[in-house]
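Re: your question about Aminotransferase DegT

S., sorry for the slow reply, the queue was backed up all week. Below is exactly what I fed in.
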Amino acid sequence: MTNPIPFIDLPAQRRRLGPALDEAVARVMDHCGFILGREVDAFESALREFTGARYALGVASGTDALALVLMAKGVRPGDAILVPAFTFAATAEVVVWLGATPIFCDVEEETFNLSPDSLVRGIETARAMNLRPVGVIAVDLYGRPADYDRIEPIVADAGMWLLTDAAQSFGTTYKGRTVGTIGLATATSFFPSKPLGAYGDAGALFTDDEALATTVISMRMHGMGAAAYDHVEIGMNGRLDAMQAAILVEKLKIFPDEIAARRRVAARYNEGLSGVARTPAISEEEPSVWAQYTLRIAPDARDGFRAALQERGVPTAVHYPKPLNQQPAYARFPSAGNGVPVSERLAREVVSLPMHAYLDEATQDRVIEAVRAAL
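Result:
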């Protein structure tokens, strides 16, 4: 096997940032204020400027960002939260934590995102089960925003709220609207492999709703009130640490350039693989940040395809091999209407190729040639 290509090349980014990251970490080490503090304030300010959201709150992880919104909205047993079946477990996990019921909805063939038609069926399913449909978590899978022009009226007509899960789409826009300003709130993750990644767990929550922001600020610090040991909410330890914030401040400075580089890689992949593979759609109105570049391969050929690429030193990944309705922990929860056939089919077909901002053209060509040879 030839020398393997990194699936995500974090060392290349580290080399680019060089002394800036060292100096950012050293500042925190010098003042020893490791939780919240000046670096978190600076990062939140930079996030507000980047997104245009009124409030940007740093938290310990993307999962905590999701959970804090649900907690602040008082989600409880008897409530139903509509979520896509084709996503990472955290999207449904936070619903179950609070005793509510996730209703699994299907996704669309082209975008892999929440299907508005299935969402309607999911609301009907919740009501038929005598559950209260109160919220929707729409996931922007692989980096492309969901169809909010259709989703938002459905949510509003049902008297529900919308939480957007932008763990994979942070940094992009939807028809001129910045991710982070859609719905009641937006949650994102800065897990190291994300397009904007920390060097550990970190996340953020965005909202224009003052009451929600005030509650989350309290809840992320054990429900603290106006002073230490004054607890006005049932909260959690959801604080962002200063070291991660300091690192993310530096990474955010080069983030637009990295997004542009990812888009060039995706365009070149699409051009090179046209006619031999089912490539992802590229949209000018709903541009992706390409958290993943994902092909669809016939289920009976996927394992062989991955093995052939591995022999050529090209790693692949499957995001995700089982939809949530088929996961042992979640199989007992209901699916919308007639089920989630698209999610189940996609889980058998998807394969992600190496994708990051530091893939040079020679490496891209190597990936393209390996895919063409395997197919």
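The radius of gyration is 21 Å. The first helix runs from residue 10 to 17.

Happy to talk it through on Thursday.
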